[in-house]
Amino acid sequence: MSVRFIKFALVGASGTMVNLCAFLSFATLLGLRDWRISGLASLFANLTNYILNNAWTFGDRGHRGWSLLRGYAAYLGFSLIGMSASTLTFEGLSFGYHTYLHTAQRTAESYILALGFQLIAILVGTVFNYELSKRFTWRDPKHDVLGRNSHKPVPDVISASPS
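Below the sequence we write its predicted structure tokens.
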């Protein structure tokens, strides 16, 4: 396991706390506990994760100045895949629970259940976000997007024929 992945995971853990706190805050303020709050909390955590990953996890490749905004646009674009996976996971878990397991009205204890669903959803999105961030947003300039060394010597196409 790489040091960079451990840093990404630690930033992700802090982002998980930000996401869950934002989810609870938005749910309380807006009175909603559905996919919209899940998406909003994920977007808020996404911004904090970008700032921390740019400064610490990928500090050697970090974006500065105006490229910080371009970098966030790229990060957000690729993170939308992970956020979509998270939001769809949350909605699927919520729908399945309320449709098949529990048909009563949503009550105060459903906040705990919703937070649990959101945590599972975050874990699903994390898988997508790490690989896309590493390969595209903070790509190592010595490697292509598939992780291959782009500075390998080019084989000589004209070789001496055996005599």
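Residues 134 and 140 are 8 Å apart (CA to CA).
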